[in-house]
Amino acid sequence: MIEPSVESMGYELVHMTLGNGPNGCRLSIYIDAPGGIRVDDCEAVSNQVGAILDAADPLSSSYTLEVSSPGLDRPLVTPDHFRRFVGNRARIVMDTDIRGRRRFIGQIVEAGESLVVLESEGEDYELPYTRIESARLESVF
């Protein structure tokens, strides 16, 4: 319901989370665009999405809507996200052990349809997307 509207405004819907906030639910929406995201962009998307949610009323309780950029440590959610950032460093947490490990930090070497290859500590690990609990770019300063 939200993604088509955000995309029609010229933004990429990177990720959404629904969690508990101090006054009920908190819906966090992360958007991106080729030139980056400004406060005005977040405000425009917030107004559009707020109107959609008010009309459809999909949440059973009150909610707070937050719209922001994904930041330097942006989440990697889809195979396209991983493909776009091949060559960059990422932090990935798996839902099960892969060769005795659940947590990986390393360079994205390859991103296919079903898995990402991450080079970590001199070894390549094939990490299936279906087993990834969370993944974010790792900021390098």
The biggest sheet, with number of strands, parallel, antiparallel or mixed sense and barrel status, is:
5 strands, antiparallel
Uncertain segments: none
Strand proportion, as a percent range, falls in over 45%
Number of domains: 2
Query: Based on DSSP secondary structure assignment, what is the total number of beta strands?
Result: 8
Q: What strand order characterises the main sheet?
A: 7-6-5-4-8
What's the helix-strand series? HEEHEHEEEEE
In words, what does this structure look like?
The chain has 141 residues and is an alpha+beta fold. The protein folds into two domains: 3-68, GMP Synthetase, Chain A, domain 3, CATH 3.30.300; 79-137, SH3 type barrels (Roll), CATH 2.30.30.100. 21% of the residues lie in helices and 45% in strands. The chain has helices at 3-8, 39-56, 79-84, and strands spanning 12-21, 24-32, 63-68, 89-98, 101-111, 115-120, 123-128, 132-137. β5 and β6 (115-120) form a beta hairpin.
Give a quick precis of the structure:
This protein is α+β, with helices and mostly antiparallel strands. It is 21% helix and 45% strand.
Outline the fold blueprint:
Elements: H1 3-8, E1 12-21, E2 24-32, H2 39-56, E3 63-68, H3 79-84, E4 89-98, E5 101-111, E6 115-120, E7 123-128, E8 132-137
Parallel strand pairs: 2-3
Antiparallel strand pairs: 1-2, 4-5, 4-8, 5-6, 6-7
Notable traits:
141 residues, alpha+beta, GMP Synthetase, Chain A, domain 3, SH3 type barrels, 2 domains, five-stranded antiparallel beta sheet, three-stranded mixed beta sheet, 3 helices
